Automatic annotation (TrEMBL):
Keywords, alphabetical: Membrane, Transmembrane, Transmembrane helix, Transport
Protein name: Cation:proton antiporter
Domain Cation/H+ exchanger transmembrane: start-end pairs: 15-371
Basic and acidic residues composition-biased segments: 406-419
Source organism phylogeny: Bacteria, Bacillati, Actinomycetota, Actinomycetes, Kitasatosporales
Length: 439
């Protein structure tokens, strides 16, 4: 009875704290992820209020949080979206891999962590945070920008790459060697290929089998199926997270929409528990010694992510302002970096403190670089426009029709199509009345 009482008290205190700091993050316009990590550090061993009775429950909740995170991520994509992104964005994906995974691998080798630690830290520095970036783009009103499909294309390639990377990392962490890693990778490739084929050819049939008019039945079937597939995937050394991701891809249409609506609050709760658990497993005293390497790694990979976005946007024919905005938006790291570090922490405990400090830095810096890339280039463009005698940096002699808040139809500064003008979006002036405005 005493143990149950202590469990309820600790669990209630943790969830209430997460709710309060989540509201605080929303008020100041930040992602709650760094605050969840800090809460985990406070509740962990060596923290201000260490937990004892609820640690096992939080660990199980963290596993469910990872599964729901990946399921919801898979629901965001259809199989056709993934295939299209693979065909059009694979050069940008390769550049992203080389530029952003290499610093992590090199840093791990210099720190003496060996090949497995290098593979793990390479993943931490490689993958951007889809959740943080999507929220930042929404908050800044950039979902209609020309560079936004490029950003999303890079994120899709990264997310799909996790279906191959996580099984390989899991096999290496299990000590099965390169041969076992190759087998796990082959199984992952076959599984991903089979799921994509089934989703392309039979998505309606799969969705109809899962569909239900009763929200309770739909929730039970989807969650049960996802956890079952995740467990089977874990047994096959393919990673539970990848199994959940593939279930999300296989669902489509109204079923996917309904599942997203039902699972969003549950996902947010257990994802918060996951970030807290990662902080729980990290000793706060271990962070100061790795703070300098984390700062250096954050500085290098901020530059490489900006270069990645610049390259990807340039391939799409987007002008300099859009290229810089694309690069600035990709800087944030978050949920995937923490998932990878959590997998590797049992084998290489030193990766936990470094990954925690690294994610804390970049989940805070990412939204700032996204805002700076937009506002800095906008101020520069408006100043050049005034010198030219134009309006807001537009091309002289052209006419633009206002399409919506902050969007105009017509060539951008480089004459390459619709542009986004933050001058309009910030309400500092209004376009002239009528269907068109002078450029």
């Amino acid at each position: 009875m005493h143990d149950t009482t202590a469990l309820l008290v600790e669990l209630g205190a943790v969830i209430l704290t997460l709710g309060l700091i989540g509201r605080l993050a929303g008020r100041v316009g930040l992602s709650p992820i760094p605050l969840y990590l800090l809460a985990g550090l406070a509740f962990g061993q060596g923290g201000l209020m260490p937990l004892y009775a609820s640690e096992g429950f939080v660990a199980a909740g963290a596993e469910i949080g990872v599964i729901l995170l990946l399921l919801m991520l898979g629901l965001e994509y259809s199989a056709s979206d993934l295939v299209t992104s693979l065909r059009t964005q694979y050069p940008s994906g390769l550049v992203d891999l080389v530029l952003n995974a290499t610093p992590g691998a090199v840093a791990a080798l210099l720190l003496g962590w060996g090949p497995v630690g290098a593979v793990a830290l390479a993943g931490v520095t490689w993958i951007s945070s889809s959740g943080v970036i999507a929220k930042v783009l929404t908050d800044l009103g950039r979902l209609g920008n020309r560079e936004t499909p490029v950003i999303l294309g890079v994120l899709v390639i990264e997310d799909l790459s996790m279906a191959l990377y996580l099984p390989l990392l899991t096999a290496l962490l299990a000590g099965v060697g390169l041969a076992g890693g190759g087998v796990a990778l082959a199984i992952a490739l076959g599984t991903v290929g089979a799921v994509l084929y089934a989703a392309l050819r039979h998505s309606r049939l799969i969705s109809r089998a899962v569909s239900s008019d009763d929200p309770e039945m739909l929730l039970l079937v989807v969650v049960g199926l996802t956890v079952l597939v995740a467990g089977i995937a874990q047994r096959l050394q393919v990673s539970a997270a990848v199994g959940a991701f593939l279930v999300g891809i296989a669902l489509s249409g109204e079923v996917a929409e309904g599942v997203r609506r039902l699972l969003s609050p549950l996902r947010d709760l257990f994802a918060a528990v996951f970030f807290v658990f990662f902080g729980l497993s990290t000793d706060p005293a271990a962070i100061p010694p790795v703070l300098l390497p984390a700062l250096l790694l954050a500085a290098v990979t901020t530059a490489t992510k900006i270069a990645t976005g610049w390259y990807a946007a340039r391939r799409a024919g987007i002008g300099r302002r859009g290229r810089l905005r694309a690069g600035g938006a990709l800087v944030a790291r978050g949920e995937f970096s923490v998932v990878i570090a959590g997998l590797a922490a049992a084998t290489e405990p030193r990766i936990g403190p470094l990954a925690t400090a690294y994610v804390l830095l970049l989940v805070l810096l990412g939204p700032l670089t996204a805002r700076w890339a937009g506002s800095g280039t906008a101020r520069h463009g408006r100043w050049r426009g005034r010198l030219r005698g134009g309006f807001g940096g537009g091309v002289r002699g052209r006419r633009f029709r206002v399409r919506g808040r902050g969007h105009t139809e017509g060539p951008d500064r480089n004459g390459r199509g619709p542009r986004y003008d933050p001058w309009f979006s910030r309400g500092r002036c209004s376009p002239p009345a009528g269907p068109s405005a002078p450029g």
